[in-house]
Specification:
Distance between the termini: 34 Å
Oligomer: single chain
Largest sheet: none
Structural class: mainly alpha
Number of strands: 0
Strand content: under 5%
Amino acid sequence: MTALSSTSTTSTDSLLRLAMRADAVLSGLAGIALMAAAGPLSGFTGIPKAAEYAVGAGFVVYGIVVFLAAGLQRVRTAGIATMVANLIFTVAAVLVVLDVDLTTAGVVLTLASGVYTLVFADLQYLGVRRIK
């Protein structure tokens, strides 16, 4: 009787693709909601209405680009770029809170968006690390 042993050296990119797709869908939906509610939300947060529209549109474009990038055959480089973009947004969110006169709700929502992007950057980092 012979024993069969196999050493699996294949890499998996499923976590990275999942993290990118989830980030893309949630960012796109948040962008649509932000643009739809820009007027009332502007008064609630202290962020100018034009900035709300611009950020919402940026979220939609980001969502589309990241969703398409998650489907690339070699997703590692796109995953790194997405992770870096999320880290940059996290830093930008903190800078906005420090530099812009926001309401308390604006501070909370802006910092929450920074935490969101930091969590997705971490998931994407873990996904990139799993690829061999």
